[in-house]
Design goal:
The protein is built from no helices and ten strands.
């Protein structure tokens, strides 16, 4: 089954940056779109950004546009989310999954990585 290990979260001051990583395993990573989500609980997860399998298509939620950058390295089975100019509203647990804007989400989620932005 698909497994995701998110990392890179932490405590950062408002205006700061973080780079999250999503290490995937258990499925052919390079064949699937990848997305990042966030929420204070799993039930509150919201889509942040999506990248297609070949990185040719990228989409961001409005709150992420201009500040966040999604990318992936298929050779490393890893996705990334670069987050700049963070605000307290970006605080939450960040998760990755297959699918996203244009495709159904996968059934499995990782533990996520906590991002806390202090004002």
């Amino acid at each position: 089954q698909a497994q995701f290990v998110e990392s890179g979260g932490g405590l950062v001051q408002s205006g700061g940056s973080l780079r999250l990583a999503c290490k995937a395993s258990g499925f052919p990573f390079s064949r699937y779109a990848l997305s990042w989500h966030r929420g204070h609980s799993p039930a509150e997860r919201k889509l942040v950004a999506t990248i297609t399998s070949d990185s040719g298509g990228i989409d961001y939620s409005n709150f992420a546009k201009g500040r966040f950058t999604i990318s992936r390295d298929n050779a490393k089975n890893t996705g990334y989310l670069q987050m700049n100019n963070l605000t307290s509203e970006d605080t939450g647990v960040y998760y990755c999954n297959t699918g996203g804007t244009w495709f159904p989400l996968g059934d499995y989620w990782g533990q996520g990585t906590q991002v806390t932005v202090s004002s």
